[in-house]
Design goal:
Radius of gyration: 18 Å
CATH class of the largest domain: Alpha Beta
Shape: globular
Number of strands: 14
Strand order of the largest sheet: 4-5-8-6-7
Order of helices and strands: EHEHEEEHHHHHEEHEEEEEEEHHH
Bound molecules: flavin-adenine dinucleotide
Distance between the termini: 55 Å
Helix content: 25-40%
Length: about 270
């Protein structure tokens, strides 16, 4: 039998965690597993309203771990993230699915996490856990601990950030792949290119080939072709019921080209 433990703060919940416990966010994945008979001994949840807050301080936005996709869509400060939140599941899923939960969602999920990776977001851990990059967390999700919030810098130029999700069933199918691109520019040249793919690996991953092609250059049709050719370099996507690994690798560059072409025309 599963027991549910409720704590007023994340720190208390963190102290209560153990091998037999699973943290419960919005529960879209945890409760699905429970309903499928994969119930842990203990479910740990937190009622701290601070986890649902979005706070703006200058260009930096702190998004509480328990902020849902629907909360994101209702917040004007997060307008650059609306195109991603809007494409996660259907309305019922968006009402429950949290920002922190998306960081732990296994392939082919993690569209929001891919966007956070492209935006070089930081993750704030419970207690004195401090901050670390989303990239670090995604490399070692098994030892991540509890997450209190995500911090992100608002892109200075909204045209520099773009997102594309490819799915077979519209509007709420899961990803064949998703792509988030952040291409800040200085004097017309791209400085700090970050391209992240969802569903092209066990979790969201950066396309180092595409980033290398784009860095220091001015966005043009020829440059977009080079980035597209290098898109799936070093990536080893899984085969699943949505798409084969071969198909994902074949189309990754085609869709990156579409996204970058749309961003060039803004
Ligand atoms: C029908 C359906 C459609 C979906 N469609 C999409 C989609 O299109 N795109 C997409 O990306 N995802 C999709 N998902 C997956 C999922 O809904 C999202 O990834 C969601 O954001 C997970 O958040 P949650 O709060 O519900 O996580 P939960 O189910 O509560 O938890 C998931 C995991 O995250 C951990 N976790 C949660 N919060 C924290 C925290 N604060 N600190 C540490 N660990 C934590 C949990 O312990 C658990 O391991 C879909 C799911 C369903 C059921």
């Amino acid at each position: 039998m599963t027991t549910i433990e409720t704590y007023p703060t994340l720190d208390e919940a963190a102290r209560a965690m153990g091998q037999d416990a699973v943290y419960l966010g919005g529960g879209t994945l945890v409760m699905r597993a429970v309903n499928e008979g994969k119930a842990p001994q203990r479910l740990v949840r937190v009622t701290d309203p601070g986890l649902t807050e979005v706070r703006l301080s200058g260009d930096t936005i702190r998004i509480g771990a328990a902020v849902t996709m629907s909360d994101v869509l209702a917040n004007r400060d997060l307008d650059f993230l609306h195109p991603i939140a809007r494409l996660i599941g259907g309305p019922q899923v968006r009402n429950m699915a949290t920002v922190a939960g998306n960081l732990f969602a296994a392939h082919p999920y993690g569209d929001f996490a891919a966007a956070l990776l492209a935006l070089d977001a930081s993750v704030i851990g419970a207690g004195q856990g401090g901050a670390r990059s989303v990239g670090d967390l995604l490399r070692d999700r098994g030892h991540a601990g509890l997450i209190a919030a995500v911090e992100i810098r608002r892109p200075r130029d909204p045209r520099a950030f773009g997102f594309l999700k490819v799915s077979r069933v519209k509007p709420k199918g899961v990803s064949v792949l998703s792509i988030a691109a952040h291409l800040p520019r200085e004097g017309g040249r791209i400085r700090g290119a970050r391209i992240a793919f969802g569903a092209m690996g066990p979790g969201p991953l950066r396309s180092t080939g595409a980033e290398r092609a784009l860095e220091g250059q001015s966005l043009s049709a020829a440059l977009i072709d080079s980035a597209a050719s290098a898109a799936s370099e070093g990536l080893d996507p899984p085969t699943d019921e949505i798409a084969s690994a071969w198909y994902r690798k074949e189309v990754a560059g085609v869709h990156l080209k579409r996204l970058l072409t749309e961003m060039e025309r803004r």
